[in-house]
Specification:
Elements: H1 2-7, E1 8-18, E2 26-29, E3 38-43, E4 47-54, E5 62-65, E6 68-71, E7 73-75, E8 83-90, E9 103-109, E10 117-126, E11 138-150, E12 153-163
């Protein structure tokens, strides 16, 4: 019915994470050792740009990353007609990830007809002494996040890190 179709929708959102010089971050393949098979490689005490690209307009220009509010700027629509939003993610006061462990970045993104989309991204934070280690691996084009909204409840369907 018409009411049900308004409350049900699915979509894909792309998340890009860029270093301060606007180059993409790297990720590595971990296999089945951890919760996810792919891990983002990030530095502690570093500023990153995070972009959200989607056909759907966000309900507010703010996201929450690990409990910290991040203001977003709406950028011009891309060549595919997607809305583009960008904010700054700072890894200040985050400790480096211990050997053989992984951390998770929790992103809450406000999308229409839902409270928010919860995006968990597995990562490893490296100390500033290990700066060269963050570039080993595969350059990240984006994380493709597929989601489904039914009756104001959002479900994460799948996530896949895409190579540059």
């Amino acid at each position: 019915n018409e009411y049900k179709s308004y409350l049900s929708m699915a979509g894909t959102l792309h998340v890009e994470i860029l270093q301060a010089d606007r180059t993409p971050v790297s990720f590595k393949e971990d296999g089945s050792r951890f919760t996810e098979s792919q891990t983002l490689k990030l530095m502690v005490d570093t500023k990153y740009f995070i972009r959200f690209i989607s056909k759907v307009e966000l309900t507010q220009l703010e996201t929450v990353i690990n409990g910290v509010s991040v203001l977003l700027t709406e950028l011009p629509v891309d060549s595919n007609g997607n809305k583009v939003y960008e904010g700054t993610y700072k890894t200040e006061q985050i400790e480096k990830t211990k050997a053989e462990k992984r951390d998770v970045i929790f992103i809450q993104l406000p999308i229409p007809q839902s409270t928010s989309l919860q995006i968990p991204l597995q990562c490893k934070y490296y100390s500033l002494k290990k700066k060269s280690a963050i570039n080993w691996g595969v350059s990240l084009k984006s994380v493709a996040v597929s989601y489904k909204i039914e009756e104001a409840t959002t479900s994460l369907v799948s996530m896949k890190m895409r190579k540059l």
